[in-house]
């Protein structure tokens, strides 16, 4: 067996993965990576029920896996618990949890709207507490689980105008460490991935605002945004995050837990 094959052999076939925010960007790309390996999927995100069911049916047919879709709003803990219970009743368990859903708002702290602060903390941080709280007992019963939190480089360092985002992402890094300690003897690993720039709709507004403020084309503004802090002068492809998630589910990553792992083109080494 080649080394490459051994790395890919993550053993996720037949397991059930829940990826929050898997209707777009990093979450959707991660869903494809896990589905290709035969992992059953709980898809989730803000999309109409009919669109979500169509997406779930497409995955089921293409990859011959079981799927479930929910558009539960992650700002509401009760909705989170309810959709997870329904999903487990349909698919049997949740073996892999990827807390990925997130939003962004950039404004200086003195002007930052209270409701944006509350939404960012709820979606980017508190929802991960609720999903983790709900999955740990089932994973512990099975003696196997993988919890992967999509944090950010902003879980490790700060940037101006991102008070809520940085607070939430630093928070999820702390949550990752605590849950890793609590789950260390249960066969459950808990890690955070901390990406730099990833090419998804999340960052469109930031690019558009640089383009209009500095009279640049969208592509020029994108380059300016990426290279302002990240030495690697390119955005990551969302699929690269999905492939890292797959690696963390695999045998080689058994000893990696409680880690906050930068994928940031050397941003945080400076
Ligand atoms: P995206 O905008 O493409 O996707 C966000 C997902 O979250 C969507 O599926 C959306 O429906 C879901 N979502 C948003 N609000 C929700 C709510 N109230 N209830 C339920 N679902 C909700 O964004 P992305 O770039 O793929 O971001 C995914 C994660 O990666 C986020 O946590 C983000 O902070 C993180 N991240 C992104 C980048 C980047 O450069 N794009 C960098 C570092 C970290």
Structural overview:
The protein is an alpha/beta fold and 270 residues long. It folds into two domains: 225 residues, NAD(P)-binding Rossmann-like Domain (Rossmann fold, 3-Layer(aba) Sandwich), CATH 3.40.50.720; 37 residues, no CATH class. Helix content is 49%, strand content 13%. The chain contains nine helices and seven strands. Strands 3-2-1-4-5-6-7 form a seven-stranded parallel β-sheet, sandwiched between helices. Helix 6 links the parallel strand 5 and strand 6. The longest helix is centred in the middle third of the chain and has 29 residues. It is globular. The chain starts with a helix and ends in a 7-residue tail after the last strand. The N terminus is likely disordered. Bound molecules: nicotinamide-adenine-dinucleotide (NAD).
Strand content: 5-15%
Whole-angstrom Rg: 18 Å
Average residue-wise pLDDT: 96
Number of helices in the DSSP assignment:
9
**Number of DSSP-assigned strands:** 7
Ligands, deduplicated: nicotinamide-adenine-dinucleotide
CATH architecture annotation of the largest domain: 3-Layer(aba) Sandwich
Q: Can you summarize the main beta sheet? A: 7 strands, parallel
Number of domains: 2
CATH fold type of the largest domain: Rossmann fold
The share of residues in helices is 40-55%
Content-based structural category: alpha/beta
């Amino acid at each position: 067996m080649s080394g490459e094959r051994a790395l890919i052999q993550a053993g996720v076939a037949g397991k059930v993965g829940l990826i929050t925010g898997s209707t777009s960007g990093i979450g959707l790309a991660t869903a494809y990576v896990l589905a290709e390996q035969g992992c059953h999927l709980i898809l989730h995100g803000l999309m109409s029920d009919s669109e979500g069911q169509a997406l779930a049916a497409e995955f089921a047919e293409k990859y011959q896996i079981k799927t479930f879709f929910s558009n539960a709003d992650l700002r509401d803990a009760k909705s989170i618990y309810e959709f997870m219970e329904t999903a487990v009743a349909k698919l049997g368990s949740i073996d892999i949890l990827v807390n990925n859903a997130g939003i962004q708002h950039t404004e200086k702290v003195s002007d930052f709207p209270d409701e944006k602060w509350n939404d960012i903390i709820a979606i980017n941080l508190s929802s991960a507490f609720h999903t983790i709280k709900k999955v740990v007992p089932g994973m512990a019963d099975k003696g196997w689980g993988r919890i992967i939190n999509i944090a950010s480089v902003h879980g490790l360092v700060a940037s101006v105008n991102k008070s809520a985002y940085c607070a939430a992402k630093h928070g999820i890094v702390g949550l990752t460490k605590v849950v890793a300690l609590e789950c260390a003897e249960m066969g459950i690993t808990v890690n955070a991935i901390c990406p730099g720039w990833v090419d998804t709709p999340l960052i469109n507004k930031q690019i558009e605002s640089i383009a209009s403020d500095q009279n640049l084309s969208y592509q020029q503004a994108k380059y300016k945004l990426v290279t302002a802090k990240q030495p690697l002068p390119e955005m990551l492809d969302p699929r690269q995050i999905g492939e890292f998630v797959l690696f963390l589910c695999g045998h080689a990553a058994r000893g990696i837990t409680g880690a906050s792992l930068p994928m940031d083109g050397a941003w945080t080494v400076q």
